[in-house]
Amino acid sequence: MTIATRTLGSASSLTVSALGLGCMGMSEFYGAPDPDSGFATIRHALDLGVTFLDTADMYGPFVNEQLVGRAIAGRRDEVQLATKFGIMRGEAGERLGINGSPEYIRAACDASLQRLGVDHIDLYYQHRVDPQVPIEETVGAMSELVAAGKVRHLGLSEASGSTIRRAHAVHPITAVETEYSLFTRDVEDEVLPVLRELGIGLVPYSPLGRGILTGRMTVESVAGAGDVRATAAFPRFQGEALQTNLTIAAKVTEIAEARGCTPGQLALAWLLAQGDDVVPIPGTRRVEYLEENVAAADLSLTDAEVTELTAAVPREAVAGSRYGDMSAIDE
Question: Cis (ω within 30 of 0) for the bond into 102?
């Protein structure tokens, strides 16, 4: 099993595996951490050619970068490594706000390099836009990291079209990471056209709708200890909204069964069909699910199948906001 590559960005291009691996859930958010399984999954991902790895300093907090660093030891030259700064957390996990100041960026980058055990980061994202710091100031500080050789490419996460334009005018932005799936298509309205105009790649996170598009989710499966989907932070997974969304997801499962693939593979194939500049980063900490996801890269959909899937999950039918508090999302 191997996987093709895609290019993010045109002004400052980065070649990565057509599917990446989101590492967040190995350390936090979706139940008890499982670093051993995560380690094995990352190593197997590299064996399969999934070399675009996504982490952040706030995952864990801090321990996810350490896990990724251990897993890529001795194989650094195979990896396109992405991490993020900007959502501050304390050692106990407490949220301390968003910070896009130059002083914080420099310190955060050095700390990430140390935890990852590398001398450079391939793609360094601002995790969330700081409304108190002009984006020009933030990206200016990020560009200094490029000049210093600590970072190769710059990215933004959950940034609006206007913010992306302003940032790109300071230094080429290679990729923008945002939530995008059959269940979340807001990016198509404003952000994706701007990315295409400027030659910036799109990296969809939660491309499987936080698990609902895998066909394995039930009401009970999101009620476990440590699973943030069971909290008010994620309205789509609460009460009647979850029941509605599971019904919608069942339509994807039905189409997948007819196609002879899993619903998760079909959802990823739909995203890959949105353009060669789109590189989803499905997250998993299990080798079996990694292999299932990778197989989606070889699943070619016809235009008719893409249209059928799009119609099967109407944007207006999805119940609930993607976050309970959308204030950190740049608009």
Answer: no
pLDDT tens digits, one per residue of 135-155: 999 999 999 999 999 999 999
First-last CA distance in the chain: 40
Nearest partner of 238 among 215, 210, 266, judged by Cα:
210
Q: How far apart are alpha carbons 126 and 150 in whole angstroms?
A: 15
Q: Is the distance from CB of 81 to CB of 64 less than 8 angstroms?
A: no
Distance, CA of 253 to chain centre: 23
Measured in degrees and rounded to the nearest 5, phi and psi for residue 322 equal -70, -25
> Is 205 assigned a catalytic role?
no
In this structure, what CATH number is given to the domain that contains residue 22? 3.20.20.100
The β-bridge relationship of strands 121-126 and 151-157 is parallel
Is 165 within a domain? yes
Residue 193 lies in a domain: yes
- The predicted model scores a pTM of 0.96
What are the E-state strand segments in the chain?
5-8, 14-17, 21-22, 52-54, 80-85, 87-89, 95-98, 121-126, 151-157, 175-179, 201-205
Spatial separation of the C-alpha atoms in residues 142 and 126, rounded to whole Å? 9
Is there a contact between 73 and 109 (Cβ–Cβ < 8 Å)?
no
**Per-residue confidence (pLDDT) for residue 1, from 0 to 100:** 60
User: Which two tokens mark 302?
Assistant: 């016809």
Number of domains in the chain: 1
Q: Is residue 151 part of a domain?
A: yes
Q: Which positions ≥6 away from 254 have C-beta within 8 Å?
A: none
Range of the domain at 53: 5-211+265-302
Sequence length of the chain is 331
State whether residue 168 is helix, strand or coil. Answer: helix
- Residue matched to tokens 């560009």: 143
Residue identified by tokens 């069942």 is 250
Active site residue: 59, 104, 124, 180, which one? 59
Asked if residue 243 is part of any domain, the answer here is no
